Amino acid sequence: MVDLEFDQESEGLAVLTIDRPHARNAISLDTMGQLEKALGAAAGARTLVVRGAGDRAFVSGGDLKELSALRTEEDAAAMAKRMRSICDQLANFPAPVVAALNGHALGGGAEVAVAADIRIAADDIKIAFNQVQLEIMPAWGGAERLAAIVGKGRALLLAGTGTALEAVEAERIGLVDRVIPRASFDEGWRSIARSLARRPAGEIKRVIRGVSPDEAIASFARLWVADAHWRAAERVMNRTAGSRPAAGGAS
């Protein structure tokens, strides 16, 4: 099951939850269809969070019990193409996408994680591109995205051996962007996501992904003339004025 909620405390924050406890949040063909619908429904969100339900698994990969019915190269290719398209939609989502790694991200789950812009992990999780344990390889775009994040050599080492990384080690090499203690994890990722949703992070994402200097300047100019900028500027100027010492001196 895939749930999509819109955070009522922060306008523009959408949270997509993969909730399949019986399969450790593994992805089946039906899950793919639900993900496609949820991504369509999230259009317009200022920040999108992808998470797994519970605290054991973010996504544990593809659901082998269901996907084992695929026995031809054609069927395998069609499944991989469909899920890669979903990961591409995550990567190309106009607003920031945060993967909240509430549990282990394994195999295809790690591929979903690297399709996000930002990965926030609980301190007791592991992440592994361990498809090689099944004598296969990442097929949802994860190998290429992993290489873009950690470099080609390190990506080959990780995916080629299936090494599982603790959250702190994943953060050290840049695979995870923030590690939060388990006790405060839910509060932590929501705080970060709400902050992103309240600010023009979508424009910053667009520039980071690559636009011309003129387009970057045009984005800045649009924000500059917007009412939100002037309201914020007024607050800053009022605080600054209030902190100045009073005019005049001692007599």
Automatic annotation (TrEMBL):
Signal peptide positions on this chain: none
The entry's keywords: Fatty acid metabolism, Isomerase, Lipid metabolism
GO MF annotation terms: enoyl-CoA hydratase activity; isomerase activity
Cross-referenced InterPro entries: ClpP/crotonase-like_dom_sf, Enoyl-CoA_hyd/isom_CS, Enoyl-CoA_hydra/iso
Gene Ontology biological process terms in this record: fatty acid beta-oxidation
Domain of life where this protein originates: Bacteria
Catalytic activity: a 4-saturated-(3S)-3-hydroxyacyl-CoA = a (3E)-enoyl-CoA + H2O; a (3S)-3-hydroxyacyl-CoA = a (2E)-enoyl-CoA + H2O
UniProt record similarity statement: Belongs to the enoyl-CoA hydratase/isomerase family.
Protein's name in the database: Enoyl-CoA hydratase/isomerase family protein
Source species: Mycobacterium helveticum
